[in-house]
Amino acid sequence: MERQAKIVSIINWKGGVGKTTLTHHLATGLQHLSSDELELVGHEHSHPKVLLVDADAQCNLSILCLTPEEFENLAYHNKPPIGTLKDLIEHYLKNEHPQVDVNDFILKAHVRSGNGKVYEHIDLLPAHSELIHTDMDIAVYLRPNFKEHLFGWDIYKFQMLHHILNTVKHEYDFIFIDCPPNLNYITQNALYASDYYLIPAIPDRLSSYGISSIKNKVDELNERFHSSSKEYSDTKLIGIVFNFIREYGSQPKQTQANMINMLKDTLPPDVMFNSYLTYGDAITRASTLSYPVFAVENSQAKQSECVKNITLEFLNRMGGGIVV
């Protein structure tokens, strides 16, 4: 049976809140579910097939999946270097139907699982540091024959990633996009292409400031995209996942608990995940090896268990319709 991927953008305008960590661990967490857990979410025969898309010029997801050395060699020193999201966007910017095969730009089964092994069901579309310049190119580029007086005349600038992923979404169950910490053209392309978006956050005043504005801005973009394209479907919020939680008695410490409760009073019901990622060094240790946390902890250890709980809640929210 042909797949039809659900596309999810992981976004927050603020950096350092765990976007890349969450993106990486949602993909890898799906590969560590038991057969009983997979059966509950309709994947009893195999683990879900996942495509990771690194849309951030910092390339953190690509580095985390491959190691810094391998990414550096593949993207900058190979002759020729591998194709990246930057190259694909440039093709689609200048031609709605370029003569390229998106699969040629995807690294198949390259994401490391530990002990020299890789995940067979996870692929990667890597980023490039020059994506930051690509964003500027999108801003100034105008296709020939487009008339500025037409309403929605520039909508193609937001549809490129949508067209790219449409060519391969039948090969995957999930596509996760690690977005840059801004709302420039690349992020707006990701939101246009996505069915859902997920917000990682830290429960402190500075990091949590602006969460409401993210939802408001995505709602505005949904309206704009709708007005310019009748085929567009709203990108829905799955929820907010908190990171770097410090626990006392298996609950967030008081200062973080107070911030979480304050946000609950200002945001729609059910918007916050019940599961969260605790503070700890296991993910940090794993990241230095370009592995997920499962490579340094067993499935019952604290941060591995947190990732598993987040993954299951993510699946249940999508399957149970808990989107806001």
Automatic annotation (TrEMBL):
CDD domains: ParAB_family (cd02042). It holds the Pfam family AAA_31. Gene3D superfamilies: P-loop containing nucleotide triphosphate hydrolases (3.40.50.300). Residues 5-226 form the AAA domain. PANTHER family: COBYRINIC ACID AC-DIAMIDE SYNTHASE (PTHR13696:SF99), P-LOOP CONTAINING NUCLEOSIDE TRIPHOSPHATE HYDROLASE (PTHR13696). This is Chromosome partitioning protein. It comes from Thermolongibacillus altinsuensis.
